[in-house]
Design goal:
By secondary structure, the protein is an alpha/beta fold. It is built from six helices and five strands. Helix 4 packs antiparallel against helix 5. It is elongated and about 95 Å long.
Length: about 180
């Protein structure tokens, strides 16, 4: 009777071992996949920022300067959001290049990315990735406005001022004519 019990238990035990071995194999495969993903993430974090994009000395950057009566859409920078961005930059660097145009004094005027620049200055970074583009005031203001609207970074006053300024720029109206309109 004892031999019969062992004989019937053996196949069940073997089945449990097979199932256990299959699960162990799946677990091992998942562990390997997780390890590979971790390594890829670490490699990305160690990779040079914005590979292939030129790096410029941080002191070459200035906020966007527009002709008289026009201003950069963004005037207020939320301290809590800036702190989060600063922490992110400290951890992984600046991953998205700034969009800039060359000013008359050869400085790089920031069309998009002023928050990244401000945080990078606070962190004492030496260089920033940037894409230089030949933009007139209208194009620069439009891009700056759109990039801030997309990110929902403008308050209602900044948004309204920027849209009014853009309308004035598109129709070549000075501040007085714009106010009358």
């Amino acid at each position: 009777m004892a031999q019969k019990r062992q004989a019937t238990q053996q196949p069940i035990f073997e089945k449990f071992q097979q199932v256990g071995a299959a699960q162990a194999g799946q677990l091992q495969q998942r562990d390997e996949e997780i390890a590979q993903l971790r390594q890829q993430l670490e490699d990305l974090q160690k990779a040079p920022t914005s590979s292939g994009v030129p790096q410029y000395p941080i002191q070459e950057f200035v906020p966007l300067r527009l002709r008289e009566g026009l201003t950069q859409p963004r005037k207020y920078f939320e301290p809590a959001a800036m702190e989060k961005l600063k922490q992110s930059i400290a951890k992984v660097g600046v991953r998205e290049p700034l969009l800039v145009r060359r000013g008359a004094d050869d400085k790089l005027e920031i069309v998009s990315g002023e928050s990244r620049w401000r945080c990078s200055k606070d962190l004492n970074l030496e260089t920033l990735p940037a894409i230089e583009s030949d933009l007139n005031d209208e194009q620069a203001l439009e891009i700056a406005l759109i990039s801030n609207l997309i990110r929902e970074n403008l308050n209602l006053v900044e948004e309204t001022d920027s849209i009014v300024a853009l309308i004035g720029l598109k129709f070549d109206l000075d501040a007085d004519s714009l106010a009358q309109a």
